[in-house]
Structures are given as C-alpha cells and as structure tokens.
Amino acid sequence: MVFSFLKIIAWVMVACFATSCALFILLKVYDYLTPKIDEQEELKKGNIAVAIVLASLILGFSFVVGMILQPDGVSPVNYRQVYTEKQSGSVIPTQTASPSIVSE
C-alpha cells in the first residue's frame, strides 16, 4: 500500500516536471514561429484573442503530454477496470458508465 502510494507520488512529480519542460519548449517554439506578435505585450493590453489562442495551445498540448505520461496504459476511461483487474488478478467486466434510465 505504501509502495503504491509512493509510486503514484513519483509519477505525479515526473508528470509535473515533464509537462513544465514541454510547455516551456512549446511556448518558445510558438514565440519563434510568430515573430511579429509579442504575446506578453498583447496580453498586457488585454487582447482576449491572444489569450484564447495561448490558452487553447497550452490546454491541448497539456492533454497530449498527460496522455503520453499515463502509466500502464491507464486512462480516465478504463481506470476502474484496470484497477479491478490488478487487485483481483483476474479479468472482471466492470461497468464504466452509468446505466440508462428506462421508464416503465
């Protein structure tokens, strides 16, 4: 149990470091590709369009990096099934979505 907790903490630290480095590189490359636009100055002026573009760039790239760093092929979609299989040692079909409500 303690080892599992430490493993999770280690993955979180690796993910934070990798995402920070990747975002730093991404923003430097984006700044290089847009030489006529000073994003920091535009943000200080209150340019909402630049803010939306940068936010979508950061969120999209963070999603990609986060999915790459998922350990053991676990994603938010199949986490419960993988966790149940690892705990029991066998494949147990689990319901990952809420059941639909059927009216009588």
Question: How does this structure look, described?
Answer:
The relative contact order is 0.09. This protein starts with a helix and ends in a 16-residue tail after the last helix. The chain is built from four helices and no strands. By secondary structure, the chain is an all-alpha fold. The radius of gyration is 20 Å and the shape is elongated. The protein has a domain at 2-69.
Uncertain runs are none
- Percent range for β-strand residues: under 5%
Principal-axes shape call:
elongated
Helix and strand sequence = HHHH
Characterize the main sheet: none
Radius of gyration equals: 20 Å
SS summary, helix count: 4
Annotate the secondary structure layout.
Elements: H1 2-33, H2 39-45, H3 48-68, H4 79-88
Quick overview of this protein structure:
With 104 residues, this protein is an all-alpha fold.
Summary keywords:
mainly alpha, 104 residues, 4 helices
